[in-house]
What does this fold into?
Amino acid sequence: MDDSMLPWSLAVLPTVRIAGRFPLDDRDFAYAYRGPTHALHVYDYDGWIRFGEQREHPLRSGDLTLSPAGGLTRYHLPRAGRHWCIHFDPVRAVGAPCAIPLHLSLGGSRARVVDAISRICGLMAASGPQSELARAAASAALQELLLTIVAHARRDQPGERTRRSDAAVEAVAALVDADIATTPAMPQLAKRVGISQNRLAVAFRRRFGTTVLRYVLARRIEHAQQLLLTTDLPVSRIGSRLGFHDPQHFDKQFRRIAGCAPGAYRCRASGS
It folds into this structure.
């Protein structure tokens, strides 16, 4: 079982420690979270999560993550948001475990999962004579939820290796778009998303029909075309802004993609 899955016992009920809906406004992976409990989250915002020191994954509203006890987790959020969260104790291994993915897009199952978390939150908030019974019910409800997540992953997701590769490809595309002028080299990209260069190259071509290098070039030229049409910046300044510090190289690459020189593209678009 690889490090993108959490082994989980089918025979032992978990103990819930915290359940609720909480705010988060972390930026630039500045704060580290490492606790004695597992933490399940369902997000109402977009952002990034980092497991350990290297593996980063884009987050989309409706995604679910599971941070293992003792593991290091950090976040980067462009804007503050709120998420559903359940902290629960690890359980002893009994029998053959199942595998819970650490990152999963819930899709159409989001509402059902959130309803289950909300129910667990209500049970944990119970007080008085019924609180012990309510907490036992919360444990049973969480076990049911975790097994539902496993079933969802098995039914709706492709094989684990393919799923991880596809997530890495989406992460690389997001990294490229986030800083188009200074995209890291292939070895650094592969390290950032936690797979080998060969797997990344194959998965990226399968997803986008081209290499990472050609994708970066195409995205840079798209940005250059937009700047040529919407600003009066000099052509050399546009090239420099997008990582082309040699004007002749910018001209050559622009012609290769757009079929004409940058200046001609601007004139043709303006009708002059």
The radius of gyration is 23 Å. The chain has a mean pLDDT of 88.
